[in-house]
Amino acid sequence: MDHENTTGEIPAAVDLELDRAHSARMYDYYLGGVTNFPADREAAARALSVFPHLLATARINRRFMHRSTRFLTQQGLRQFLDIGTGIPTSPNLHEVAQQVAPEARVVYTDNDAIVLTHARALLHSHPAGRTAYAQADVTDPDRLLSSVRARGVLDFDQPIALSLNALLHFVPDDRGAHAIVEHLKTQLPSGSALVISHVTPDFDPEGIARLTEAYRAVGTAGQARPRDEVLRFFTGWDLLDPGLVPTHRWRPDPDDHADTITDAESSCYAAVARKP
After folding, report:
1. Which domains are seen in the chain, by residue range?
2. CA–CA separation, 166 vs 89, rounded Å?
3. Helix, coil or strand: residue 51
4. HSE on the CB side for 104, CA within 13 Å?
5. Is pTM, for the whole model, over 0.85?
């Protein structure tokens, strides 16, 4: 399995900056993971204090990732490109896909060497499939795609599921979020899929505004988007049922207890689309 970064080399040492909060480790904390440290937990506690739904929001989003990955694999997708991987808290995307189709191939990317360090230890492919990791930044999509292609894991002549889960709300408009997604979409063949979950202010605008400010205070820019702005990411592709809905309402499993979850707890939209 390949855990190279964009230079083809694994750094001998990475400064994990354990004295500073990191959004990926904060998310790991919300999911009940163990790859987080006091600074992360302190920042997470501040975020939770201004948006108490946050633990539920993160875990609801994670379950959407599991369901959408399983669904697409059952629909015949065998290739996945997951951008903005974060700490690979188990079960991760490749584990879900390879439970359905052991031959599934997955490339993960993230822009932080911290994630690379953890990915090297935590990503383990089924022998019949392949997984790889590329250190790359979604705000430079051409370099990201070059790095992914260099891994030799994905065939860009065959359908690929592009996963942008809980990523685009960390790409404000001044970083060109919609143009980036459009560019990525043009590079994928017919039959490919686009999976997005995205924080929205629609259900708790004051809470989400406080949450955005809490992240900004620890150095992480963000932009929650209303429904129409999230829907724009799917322009030109065919939305699959049930369309763009709060994360817990996208094809819930019985054990998700979706009828007990409020839209404010979710505070994210999610959808899956296919390229005509």
Report:
1. 23-274 (3.40.50.150)
2. 14
3. coil
4. 28
5. yes
